[in-house]
């Protein structure tokens, strides 16, 4: 038997629910160090699934047929029955129907080891999304994922999550952000490149578009002419006004280790990490602090080269320092590249 760990909350009462350890064999398991409390796991999951309460209820619904339950404490015998390797003694179980696509291409080297753990077919849809969440949690918490079926253990490298994102209700003008980044990495420069656009294709004006599927819903000629006239008037008003900058980037060269790019763009109001913010009902800005390494394939390899690991160890403190400087200037919140909240004062 394995026992669900008693919480530091009175809601659980005095009884500890339990289940046969063998029931865990057929479930994907998130394995965490015994020093990681359920409140910490719950806090991270809420950044991805607002409104969940793992600490209070012992489960998180991920979809119609999938959920995470736990935590469970494993004895030595229970760990053997559940096919959990030592030294892990605390786990969370993922209950989800198996949904698989085709196997990975021969020689695929993905950074989290899914191709090796699922040789017959990669998880996708509900199961795939849930497993990606477990692996992201394991990366952040220094844990691992014991997969069902193959029973292979995926232990992601916690240092792989290099990139940061700052979500803020405040827009920093390009020159201001350049000054902020330059204090961390001298030599940074603005990238205001705009892709040229020459208007819609000729098919738009020929009547070939929008296509046969909308032919039955075509507007009468009078309404269509009025619509085009209104659109032309709106376009002329927009062209007559001042140019509006809705995105740009600041680039900090880090030769020979590539560069750090701070991309500035309109925030996504559907991003779960910002769901509880007071400014979510207004447009906000996302500052994406990303490391662009010389060879992007290095970031996706399960076993990166020694040169890449050395470069990453040198770049990560700069990425954190830039993110800290940006959030100090613009306020807001910070997330890692897996979408989990970061303490802005701990960067």
> How large is the radius of gyration?
25 Å
Gap between N and C termini: 41 Å
* Unreliable stretches covering 5 or more consecutive residues: 6-17
What is the overall silhouette?
globular
- Count of alpha/pi helices: 9
Q: Report the average pLDDT across residues.
A: 87
Number of self-contained structural domains: 3
Oligomer: single chain
Structural class: alpha+beta
Number of strands: 15
Helix content: 25-40%
Query: What percentage of the residues does DSSP assign to strands (E)?
Result: 15-25%
Largest sheet: 8 strands, antiparallel
Report the order of strands and helices: EEEHHEEHEHHEEEHEHHEEEHEE
Report on the structure:
- This protein has 347 residues and is α+β, with helices and mostly antiparallel strands.
- It folds into three domains: 2-156, no CATH class; 164-194 and 245-346; 202-240, no CATH class.
- The protein is 29% helix and 19% strand.
- It has helices spanning 38-48, 54-57, 76-81, 114-117, 125-141, 174-182, 202-206, 221-240, 306-330; strands at residues 2-4, 18-19, 28-32, 59-61, 67-73, 90-95, 144-146, 153-154, 164-168, 189-191, 248-253, 259-266, 285-292, 333-336, 341-342.
- The strands form two sheets. Strands 1, 2, 3, 4, 5, 6, 7 and 8 form an eight-stranded antiparallel β-sheet that branches. The chain has a seven-stranded antiparallel β-sheet with strand order 10-11-12-13-9-14-15, covered by helices on one side.
- The radius of gyration is 25 Å and the shape is globular.
- The two termini are 41 Å apart.
- The model is unreliable at 6-17 (pLDDT under 50).
